[in-house]
C-alpha cells in the first residue's frame, strides 16, 4: 500500500505497436518486404492462431507511439494542481520514438515524481528502458540511483515508493488478476471506452496517431483516479480531500472538453458521470 504521497505524482500510461524495423533485424527479413508482411511474420513467430491472429509480442520487438500522464502537483500551502500531458504533442504527430521516450524520461528524471501505472513494472517501464537502449538515448537523471534507498528517488528498486504499480497493489494472482478496465469500472471509474489495446496497431497502420493519443490519455486519467482511491484508502487523503480532488479533475475535463478536439474527454466525463450516478 502507498507509504507516501509526495508533492508531485505522475499517473501514466504508454502505448506501443510491433516495430517492423526491429522485426526485420531480429528475423533477418529483407528490406524489400513491406511493413505489413513483416508484421505478419512477427505475429506468426509470436504464436499467431486463427483465434488470435495478432498475439502479444515481446516488448523489445515493439515501438513506443504515445505516452500520457496526469500530473498532480501539491504546493507548500497544500493546494493541488492537475495537468493532462501527452506525447506526441499536438502539431508534432510525426515525432520519432526516440523523441517521445527522451522527452518523457528526461522530464521524469528532472522532476523525480512518484510514478504510477498499471502493470507498469512488468510492461510500461520495461519497454521504455528497452526502447531507450535501442535508440541509444542519454538519460542520466532518470537512471541515477541513490547509494541507499532512503537517500533519494529510485525508479528501479523493487517496492520503491516512487514507482507504484497499481496492479501489484491490487491485482492478485493468475486468473484472479483484474484488468485496469475491470478494476476501474467496479470503482465507478471509466475503463475502456470504445477503443482497447487491440485497436492500437490498426490505428497505427492507418496513420491515426491522434486517436491513439486520445485513447492513451483516457487510460492515464483512469490510472490517476484509481491511484486517488488508493491514496484515500491509505489515509493520505481525507474523504473531503478526495472528493475535492475528484471535483478538480472533473473541472479540468469540463474545461478541456469545450474544445472540439477533445470530444474523447467529453465522452470520458459523461461515462464517469453515468457510473457515479448508477
Describe the protein.
With 278 residues, the chain is α/β, with parallel strands linked by helices. It has a single domain, classed as Nucleotidyltransferase, domain 5, CATH 3.30.420. It is 47% helix and 14% strand. It is built from eleven helices and five strands. The chain has a five-stranded mixed sheet, with helices on both faces. A hairpin with a 5-residue loop joins strand 2 and strand 3. Helix 1 crosses helix 2 and helix 9 runs antiparallel to helix 10. The two termini are 28 Å apart.
What gap, in angstroms, lies between the N and C termini?
28 Å
Q: What is the CATH level 1 assignment? A: Alpha Beta
How many domains is the backbone divided into? 1
CATH topology: Nucleotidyltransferase, domain 5
Strand order of the largest sheet: 3-2-1-4-5
Give me the secondary-structure topology.
Elements (H helix, E strand, L loop, with lengths): L7 E11 L1 H8 L7 H11 L16 E13 L5 E8 L9 H15 L2 E4 L2 H15 L5 H4 L19 E3 H5 L9 H7 L10 H9 L3 H25 L5 H18 L6 H15 L1
Parallel strand pairs: 1-4, 4-5
Antiparallel strand pairs: 1-2, 2-3
Helix pairs in contact: 1-2, 9-10
Question: What labels describe this entry?
Answer:
278 residues, globular, 5-stranded mixed β-sheet, alpha/beta
Amino acid at each position: 500500500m502507498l507509504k507516501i504521497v509526495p508533492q508531485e505524482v505522475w499517473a501514466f500510461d504508454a502505448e506501443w505497436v510491433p516495430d517492423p524495423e526491429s522485426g526485420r533485424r531480429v528475423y533477418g527479413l529483407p528490406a524489400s518486404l513491406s511493413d505489413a508482411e513483416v508484421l505478419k511474420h512477427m505475429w506468426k513467430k509470436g504464436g499467431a492462431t486463427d483465434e488470435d491472429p495478432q498475439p502479444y509480442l515481446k516488448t523489445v520487438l515493439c515501438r513506443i507511439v504515445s505516452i500520457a500522464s496526469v500530473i498532480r502537483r501539491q504546493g507548500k500551502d497544500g493546494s493541488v494542481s492537475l495537468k493532462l500531458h501527452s506525447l506526441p504533442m499536438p502539431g508534432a504527430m510525426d515525432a520519432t520514438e526516440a523523441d517521445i521516450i527522451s522527452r518523457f524520461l528526461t522530464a521524469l528524471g528532472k522532476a523525480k515524481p512518484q510514478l504510477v501505472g498499471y502493470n507498469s513494472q512488468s510492461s510500461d517501464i520495461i519497454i521504455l528502458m528497452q526502447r531507450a537502449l535501442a535508440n541509444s538515448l542519454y538519460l542520466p537523471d532518470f537512471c541515477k540511483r541513490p547509494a541507499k534507498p532512503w537517500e533519494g528517488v529510485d525508479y528501479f528498486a523493487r517496492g520503491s515508493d516512487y514507482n507504484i504499480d497499481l496492479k501489484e497493489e491490487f491485482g492478485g494472482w493468475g486468473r484472479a488478476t483484474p484488468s485496469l478496465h475491470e478494476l476501474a469500472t467496479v470503482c465507478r471509474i471509466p475503463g475502456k471506452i470504445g477503443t482497447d489495446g487491440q485497436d492500437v496497431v490498426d490505428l497505427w497502420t492507418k496513420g491515426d496517431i491522434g486517436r491513439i493519443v486520445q485513447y492513451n490519455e483516457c487510460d492515464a486519467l483512469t490510472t490517476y483516479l484509481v491511484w486517488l482511491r488508493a491514496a484515500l484508502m491509505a489515509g493520505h487523503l481525507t474523504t473531503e480531500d478526495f472528493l475535492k480532488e475528484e471535483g478538480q479533475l472533473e473541472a479540468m475535463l469540463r474545461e478541456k472538453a469545450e474544445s472540439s478536439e477533445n470530444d474523447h474527454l467529453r465522452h470520458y466525463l459523461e461515462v464517469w458521470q453515468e457510473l457515479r450516478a448508477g
